[in-house]
């Protein structure tokens, strides 16, 4: 496997549309992939629940119903995956497709697929559900965390809320992850910032790069994704080899389109080995401190 030292990533602020037929969805996906590929991107990241627009193919009654929308999207996932596989091969890019609620036996999971131009494909299930997913949608935590060995480096995926839990990211970087993809779906600005803060904190703690994609805009006819806010962003540790803010690139709030950044894998290796601080190396020192908490009354 030939590894790229410099990886250009495109991360989406992606608006949901309403489609009359499958051809409209396919045309939209092709246009988005083509635009990023023509800009030189190696890795394209679509957001959490980006597949929910497929519910529109079932009509208003289906798309506006909790179980109907899940079933309509789940039934189209294989077809969507085949499309993304073809596009990855045609344009020579890696694609993280928009995640979808997928019926997996007796449960429903939130699943995102990663496609390589070689035709290889893998998936990552969301681990920890938000209150809405648990209580209203009935979505469950899915399969194990995974690290994907690719020519672009070792990539892992933390879907939205998962990025807010540091032990998940830590387990991935201990398994070799260099780049964390954070596809997200957030209704309000505070939700966006929770995920962004999580993505930036994970980049700091793990001395890696995190790539956040967002759903944007309103689609009142599709259950659960009626309102969306966010932007694309790429974040690293605020240390040597990276911007002082840790922000490699960010789009404009709620403005649809791609945000691009160059990821220098050598910079990740260098900051982990000899940064001004060594968060990744010093992580284990926390454990020896925890049993020694003293409670003092003043």
UniProtKB/TrEMBL annotation:
This is Carbon-nitrogen hydrolase family protein. Keywords: Hydrolase.
